[in-house]
Design a protein that fits this description.
With 263 residues, this protein is an alpha+beta fold. The protein has an 18-stranded mixed sheet that branches. Strand 4 and strand 5 (67-68) form a beta hairpin. The chain has helices at residues 32-42, 72-84, 130-134, 155-159, 165-169, 207-221; strands at residues 2-10, 19-26, 46-53, 56-62, 67-68, 94-98, 101-107, 112-117, 122-123, 140-143, 147-151, 175-181, 189-195, 200-203, 225-230, 236-243, 246-251, 253-262. It contains 6 helices and 18 strands. The N and C termini lie close together (5 Å). The protein folds into 2 domains: 2-115 and 249-262, Diaminopimelate Epimerase, Chain A, domain 1, CATH 3.10.310.10; 122-244, Diaminopimelate Epimerase, Chain A, domain 1 (Roll).
Length: 263
C-alpha cells in the first residue's frame, strides 16, 4: 500500500523559503505509532496526516518526536495540497477536524487564510531556567495556551538569539516565542520560535504562535490587523487578523516534492 506524500513550503512565495511541512493523504485513519515513525523519517518540524471524512477531513500533526494539538503551517500546506491535487474543489473551503476543534481554510487564488482559535496571553513569571536558556533580559513575559511569550527590547535582540537548547528543552512548555517590535518596513512585530522539548529546536515560521502573538501585540499597537515577520534562517511573514476569539492567518504555499510512502 502506498501513501501519497507532499512536501510544501508554507508561508512562502517561492520554493526553499518559509516553513516546510510534509502532507500525507490517507485513505483511512492510521495507527499513531506509524504516523509518528513517518514524521521522524520526514524529519521536518511537522508532518500532517489528512483523512477524508465525507465532505470534511481529519487532520493530525506530528513533530519528529510528538503529536501536537495545533499547527498552522502544516494546516495551510494540507489545504494547498487538497486543492492542488483536485481532492477538494477549488471553490470549496477546506474543513478540518482536529485536536483543536474545527479549523477552516479558504483561498482567493493568491493566498490561503486559516480560521484558527485566538490564544490570549496573560502576564506570567518566567518558569525556572527559561531566561538563562535564552540569555536575555525580558521587557515582559506572558503565557498563552501552549507557549511562553518573551518580549525583548528590540528586533536585533531577536535576530541575535543563540539559545542553549539543552537547557531550553528542560523548560516545561510546548514552546517559547521571543518577540519585539519590527524595525523594518512591512511588518509590525518580529519573532522567533523554539520548541526543543517537542523535537523542534527552531521552527522557521510558526502559524500557531501567531494566534498568540496577535493577542499579545494587538492591544499594544491598537490594531487588529497585523503582519508578523519570523526571523529564522528561512524566514517568512504571517498576515494575521484578530476577530473576537478567532485569529485569521494568511500566507502562500509552494509544493516542492511529491512521492509515495510504501507501507
Amino acid at each position: 500500500m502506498a501513501v501519497p506524500v507532499y512536501i510544501v513550503d508554507a508561508f512562502a512565495t517561492h520554493a526553499f523559503a518559509g516553513n516546510p511541512a510534509a502532507v500525507c493523504l490517507l485513505d483511512q485513519p492510521a495507527d499513531a505509532s506509524w504516523m509518528q515513525a513517518v514524521a521522524a523519517e520526514m524529519n521536518l518540524s511537522e508532518t500532517a496526516f489528512v483523512t477524508a471524512r465525507g465532505g470534511d477531513f481529519g487532520l493530525r500533526w506530528f513533530t519528529p518526536a510528538v503529536e501536537v494539538a495545533l499547527c498552522g503551517h502544516a494546516t495551510l500546506a494540507s489545504a494547498h495540497v487538497l486543492w492542488q491535487t483536485g481532492r477538494l474543489a477549488s471553490d470549496l473551503a477546506a474543513r478540518f477536524e482536529t485536536l483543536s476543534g474545527r479549523l477552516t481554510a479558504t483561498h482567493d487564488g493568491a493566498s490561503i487564510t486559516l480560521d484558527f482559535p485566538a490564544d490570549p496571553t496573560l502576564p506570567s513569571p518566567p518558569p525556572p531556567g527559561l531566561l538563562d536558556a535564552l540569555a536575555v533580559t525580558p521587557v515582559a513575559v506572558a503565557r498563552g495556551r501552549f507557549d511562553y511569550v518573551v518580549e525583548v527590547a528590540d528586533a536585533d535582540s531577536v535576530r541575535g538569539l543563540a539559545p542553549d537548547f539543552a537547557r531550553l528543552a528542560a523548560v516545561k512548555t510546548r514552546g517559547v516565542v521571543v518577540t519585539a517590535l519590527a524595525d523594518r518596513p512591512g511588518a509590525d512585530f518580529v519573532s522567533r520560535f523554539f520548541a526543543p522539548g517537542a523535537g523542534v529546536a527552531e521552527d522557521p515560521v510558526t502559524g500557531s504562535a501567531h494566534c498568540t502573538l496577535v493577542c499579545y501585540w494587538a492591544p499594544k499597537l491598537g490594531r487588529d490587523r497585523l503582519v508578523g515577520r519570523q526571523l529564522s534562517k528561512r524566514g517568512g511573514e504571517v498576515h494575521v487578523t484578530l476577530a473576537g476569539d478567532r485569529a485569521f492567518l494568511s500566507g502562500q504555499a509552494v509544493t516542492v516534492l511529491s512521492g509515495m510512502i510504501h507501507r
